[in-house]
Design goal:
259 residues, alpha+beta, 4-stranded antiparallel β-sheet, 9 helices
Length: 259
């Protein structure tokens, strides 16, 4: 699959529906046939763009739409009463903004664009009807949701048991794998436009601590960095350090069995 740049809202225009990162991701979790693709194409007919720093959903407010990420990066987080925030995970191409937040009466967390983003906005009513009509899509979304839950589980392990260096290494490997799976990264490098403060909020470290951990990974010859590009120089050693086993991100046995 052709690698797409993901830094801005204009990065992916007029792509075929099967090349949309959300559809690529969905197809890795279940059997999607030609009629399913046509139905998805009819549903993804409203593209919106958001600027860097713009809120997409805000914790505590009611939303009746889902936004499917075509390009760009966002941050999913919860706000604390003291004014701090906890980043729950990165929002990448192929993800759904508002899943599951918008399925509750009020959003349970916020999402902000970390770069310009291109989204396809769908009402929850239209998306629900799509799932009713196209059972392949509904079944694939079950596995989509299970994958999201497994990501959160690994983030809990990171925060509770892994060292700072291991946390940063795991964050880099997970982000790279997620981007590569939807055609938005090369085999050994990827764009990471998050600030060190944002990475710190995601892994439970201060920005200076993140800076030191990145420097240590470079010193050990595991990664290289240039502007916002991360180059993976020694994947095997980096995976051993982070205890990163990507099976929780890979194609499910269910989807492989149907093809």
């Amino acid at each position: 699959m052709r690698v797409q740049r993901t830094g801005g809202a204009d990065a992916t225009k007029d792509r075929a529906i099967e090349d949309h990162p959300f559809v690529v991701k969905l197809m890795s979790h279940g059997h999607i046939d030609r009629e399913d693709l046509k139905a998805l194409g009819r549903t993804l007919d409203r593209r919106v763009t958001v600027k860097k720093g713009q809120d997409i959903i805000v914790q505590g407010y009611e939303y009746e739409t889902l936004d499917l990420v075509e390009s760009g990066f966002g941050l999913r987080f919860t706000l604390l009463h003291q004014g701090g925030r906890q980043i729950l995970n990165a929002v990448l191409p192929g993800d759904i903004v508002g899943f599951p937040a918008s399925l509750f009466k009020r959003s349970i967390f916020s999402v902000m664009a970390a770069t310009p983003m291109s989204l396809h906005r769908v009402s929850i009513k239209a998306f629900t009807e799509l799932c009713r009509q196209r059972t392949n899509i509904a079944i694939a979304l079950i596995w989509f949701a299970a994958r999201e839950a497994s990501i959160y589980a690994h983030h809990l392990v990171n925060a509770g048991r892994r060292s700072p260096l291991e946390r940063v290494a795991h964050f880099l490997l997970e982000t790279h794998f997620r981007l590569k799976a939807v055609g938005c990264a090369s085999e050994d490098s990827f764009e990471l436009p998050f600030s060190q403060e944002a990475i710190g909020d995601a892994v439970g470290l201060s920005a200076p601590h993140v800076n030191r951990m990145l420097s240590e990974l470079r010193h050990q010859g595991l990664i290289g960095t240039q502007n916002h590009t991360i180059n993976v120089l020694d994947r095997a050693a980096l995976q051993i350090l982070a205890e990163f086993e990507p099976s929780y991100l890979e194609r499910t046995s269910f989807s492989r069995g149907r093809k």
